[in-house]
Amino acid sequence: MTPLPLALTMGEPAGIGPEITIAAWRAVRAAGPVFFLIGDPALLPGAPLALIERPEQAADAFPEALPVLPLSLAAPAVPGRLDPRNAPAVIAAIEQAVAFARAGRAGGVVTNPIQKSVLTAAGFPHPGHTEFLGELAGTGVPPVMMLACPGLRVVPVTIHVSLKRAAAELTTAAIVTQGLVVAEALRRDFGIAAPRLVVAGLNPHAGEDGTMGREDIEIVAPAVAALRAQGIAVRGPLPADTLFTPRARATYDCALCMYHDQALIPVKTLDMDGGVNVTLGLSIVRTSPDHGTALDIAGNGLADPGSLIAALRMAADMARHRAEGAAA
């Protein structure tokens, strides 16, 4: 069965999205995965483009030109200069991509980075991509953010809050809920029949029997027990300072981390240019580069497309696993 093309959103038009999109197409045009861009063709001057009207036309055009499903901006985009007038088009690209994926016309959605401040100024009510995608393609469970690179997958249970708030807001229920979503996603989207999870401790040495804080005894350990009671292979709470060594990483498929940097530092240290942001718990496949809009270098030809290429390839693999599971 021929894989469905992936829908790639344009993201912030003043950022590096346009240049990494062209670079990614050049890198994968021969072997795939096939994708089409939803965005303004004016963002890609001088690039070989094939304007399409529907996703089904992408595969034939892809080897020779980047397929673009046109979506016009309200104002010309200038690299590095934000313009709130273009926010509605950025949002519309995401909505269209999700609609194609939900209708079975795209294998998944890959999103170029957005500038949240611009969208917020234009009235966008969501904190970011993840929450918006949860509204558009949710499954009744909170969407979960996974960061992945070769050899490591991590999920931060608390995300964009201060360390003080992360400790205050961490709950047993949140760890359990995300653990269940992760285990199911590893089976469905990554083809791992018996997922192995580990849970990092919140405190140094996972609290060292309560001498460095009781959160790991009173919050984290009960979550591990609850996940284990539901048949999930899980260990923890484990000291985070030894959880990401090569020997340790070989023993699990995903690590649940208690706060943002505990999860993102090891991924970005291992593979800064190839990390992928994956949204779990959706009815569709969604990945994204693990970086922002990089306004400071936009338009200068300095942007590395590695993370976008990795996101495209991971989305294609996830879509394949879902299709195989559905066929079985």
TrEMBL record:
- Which Pfam families would you find in this protein's record? PdxA
Q: Where found?
A: Cytoplasm
- What InterPro entries does the entry give? PdxA (IPR037510), PdxA_fam (IPR005255)
Catalytic activity, as annotated? 4-(phosphooxy)-L-threonine + NAD(+) = 3-amino-2-oxopropyl phosphate + CO2 + NADH
Q: Which residues cross the membrane?
A: none
Instruction: Write out the entry's keywords from A to Z.
Output: Cobalt, Cytoplasm, Magnesium, Metal-binding, NAD, NADP, Oxidoreductase, Pyridoxine biosynthesis, Zinc
User: What does the cofactor field's note say?
Assistant: Binds 1 divalent metal cation per subunit. Can use ions such as Zn(2+), Mg(2+) or Co(2+).
Query: Which GO cellular component terms are attached?
Result: cytoplasm
Q: Which pathway is it part of?
A: Cofactor biosynthesis; pyridoxine 5'-phosphate biosynthesis; pyridoxine 5'-phosphate from D-erythrose 4-phosphate: step 4/5
Binding-site residues for a divalent metal cation, renumbered to this chain: H160, H205, H260
Query: Main EC class of this protein?
Result: oxidoreductase
Q: Which residues bind substrate?
A: H129, T130, K268, N277, R286
NAD in keyword set: yes
Q: What is its EC number?
A: 1.1.1.262
Give an example GO molecular function: magnesium ion binding
Biological process (GO) annotations? Answer: pyridoxal phosphate biosynthetic process; pyridoxine biosynthetic process
Per the entry, what this protein does is: Catalyzes the NAD(P)-dependent oxidation of 4-(phosphooxy)-L-threonine (HTP) into 2-amino-3-oxo-4-(phosphooxy)butyric acid which spontaneously decarboxylates to form 3-amino-2-oxopropyl phosphate (AHAP).
User: What does the record note on quaternary structure?
Assistant: Homodimer.
The entry's family comment says: Belongs to the PdxA family.
State any further remark. Answer: The active site is located at the dimer interface.
Report the HAMAP family cross-referenced here.
PdxA
**Listed name of the protein:** 4-hydroxythreonine-4-phosphate dehydrogenase
